[in-house]
Specification:
Blueprint lengths: L1 E9 L2 E9 L5 E8 L5 H4 L3 E4 L1 E6 L1 E2 L2 E2 L6 H10 L3 E8 L4 H16 L7 E8 L20 H8 L4 E6 L6 H10 L3 E4 L6 H10 L3 E2 L15 H9 L2 E4 L8 H10 L2 E4 L12 E5 L2 E6 L2 E3 L12 H11 L4 H15 L16 E4 L5 E6 L2 E2 L5
Parallel strand pairs: 1-4, 5-8, 8-9, 9-10, 10-11, 11-12, 13-14
Antiparallel strand pairs: 1-2, 2-3, 4-18, 6-7, 15-16, 16-17, 18-19, 19-20
Helix pairs in contact: 5-6, 6-7, 9-10
C-alpha cells in the first residue's frame, strides 16, 4: 500500500497528514489535521492535490489525435507528465473517413491505459456539427447533426462530449435526443444568439466550448452566446493561457459561472519547439507562445494543466483550493466522473504532488507514480 505525506487537499479543505492508496488504484485512507489553506505553501511541505482533468485535448508532444494509430496514447503520456491524470481526446471537424481513422486509434486508448499515461475517458467530438461561419481553426467540413454517423463513431470509441452550434437547422431539435442517448452536449463554434443559447440549455445542453472563443460576443443590446453563458451557465470551459481570453474576461467568467473549469485545447505543438505542426487537416505554426493558422487565427494552444493551475493562482489570484477545483473537480463532475477529481476514500488515486512554487514533483495515475521505475 502506497503512503504519501504532506498537505492534502480534501473536499473539506487541506489536512496535514498522510494519504494511502490501495492495490486497486483507489484511495484507501486519509488521515491528518486540518490546516489553513493560505499557510500551506509557506510551510515548505509537499502539496498533494487531485490530478488534473482536461476535457479538451487535441494533441501534444508533436502528435495529433486525428492521426489515429497510437497518437492518443502518446498524447496522454505527454499530458500526464504535466499532471493531467484523465482526459478526453478531442477530434476536429473533418470528413467521416478522417474521423473513422482517428476513432480507430482511440478505441484502444479508451480501452486500456498506456504506461505513464493519463486515463483517456473517451472522446470530445468538437464538431463537425458546428457553424461554418465560426470555424475558428476548425477545417471547413461543418455539417448538421447526423445520428447514424454519431452511432457509428460511438460504437468504436465512447463519445462523452459533443460541441455543436444550436442555430444550424436540425441541431436544436437534436439536443434532447442526444442527451437522452447519454451524450453531454455543449455549445460552441456558433453564430447563435442569446436566445439560441437559452433555448439550447432548456433542451438539455449543459456547457460551452472555450468560452469567448468562436462564439457571438456580448453586446449590451445583443448579448450573444457569451451573454447566454454568463447569465445562465452552471458549467463552461475556458482556456486560461492568457492568450485566448484576457485576464479581465476570465475574471468576469469566474464571477458569473459557478463551475467554470479549465481546458488546454492543446495541440501537437504543446511542449515542443517553435515550428510547423498538424491540427487535423490544417498546418499550424507555433511561435511567440501560441499556435496560429497562416492568417493569424489562434489554432488551439500550447498550454498544459500545471501551467493552467499556476496561471489561476499567480495571475488571477485564486486561492489554491478554488484553482484546484477548476482544473480537476468541476470537469469531473461535468461529465459524471464523480470518483475522479477529488481526494476522498474510494476515489481513484489520481494525484499530483507540487512544491511551494506549484511545480510538479510527482504524478500518480490510479495509484501508480510516473516516477516508478516499474
Amino acid at each position: 500500500m502506497k503512503r504519501l505525506q504532506g498537505h492534502i487537499l480534501t473536499p473539506r479543505g487541506f489536512v496535514s497528514g498522510a494519504i494511502e492508496f490501495g492495490d486497486d488504484g483507489r484511495i484507501a485512507r486519509i488521515d491528518g489535521t486540518p490546516v489553513v489553506a493560505n499557510s500551506v505553501r509557506d510551510s515548505g511541505g509537499p502539496l498533494v492535490l487531485p490530478g488534473f482533468i482536461d476535457l479538451h485535448v487535441h494533441g501534444g508532444g508533436g502528435r495529433d489525435i486525428m492521426e489515429g494509430r497510437d497518437a492518443a496514447s502518446r498524447v496522454a503520456e505527454l499530458h500526464a507528465s504535466h499532471g493531467t491524470t484523465a482526459l478526453l481526446a478531442t477530434t476536429m471537424t473533418a470528413p467521416m473517413a478522417d474521423l473513422e481513422t482517428a476513432f480507430a486509434g482511440l478505441k484502444s486508448a479508451c480501452t486500456s491505459r498506456a504506461p505513464r499515461a493519463a486515463r483517456v475517458l473517451g472522446v470530445h467530438l468538437e464538431g463537425p456539427y458546428i457553424n461554418g461561419g465560426k470555424l475558428g481553426a476548425q477545417p471547413n467540413f461543418a455539417r448538421p447533426v447526423n445520428a447514424s454517423e454519431l452511432q457509428r463513431l460511438n460504437d468504436v470509441a465512447p463519445i462523452r462530449l459533443i460541441t455543436l452550434a444550436p442555430e444550424i437547422p436540425g441541431n436544436m431539435e437534436s439536443i434532447e435526443s442526444l442527451v437522452a442517448a447519454g451524450y453531454r452536449v455543449q455549445l460552441g463554434h456558433t453564430l447563435g444568439t442569446y436566445e439560441d443559447g437559452v433555448e439550447a440549455l432548456a433542451q438539455g445542453a449543459r456547457g460551452f466550448t472555450h468560452l469567448f472563443n468562436a462564439m457571438t460576443a456580448l453586446h449590451h443590446r445583443e448579448p450573444g452566446m457569451v451573454g447566454a453563458a454568463l447569465a445562465h451557465a452552471q458549467y463552461s470551459e475556458i482556456i486560461p493561457d492568457l492568450l485566448h481570453a484576457h485576464v479581465g474576461a476570465i475574471r468576469v467568467a469566474l464571477r458569473a459561472i459557478p463551475c467554470l473549469y479549465c481546458v488546454t485545447d492543446s495541440t501537437a505543438a504543446a511542449v515542443m519547439p517553435d515550428g510547423e505542426y498538424r491540427l487535423g487537416r490544417h498546418k499550424v505554426t507555433k511561435c511567440l507562445g501560441g499556435v496560429r493558422l497562416a492568417d493569424g487565427t489562434l489554432a488551439g494552444s500550447t498550454l498544459t494543466m500545471d501551467q493552467a493551475l499556476r496561471n489561476l493562482v499567480n495571475e488571477l489570484g485564486l486561492e489554491l483550493p478554488d484553482a484546484s477545483r477548476r482544473v480537476s473537480t468541476h470537469a469531473a463532475d461535468y461529465i459524471g466522473a464523480h470518483d475522479r477529481g477529488r481526494l476522498s476514500v474510494g476515489a481513484w488515486a489520481d494525484v499530483v504532488v507540487l512544491d511551494r512554487d506549484l511545480k510538479l514533483t510527482d504524478v500518480y495515475v490510479e495509484g501508480i507514480s510516473l516516477n516508478d521505475p516499474k
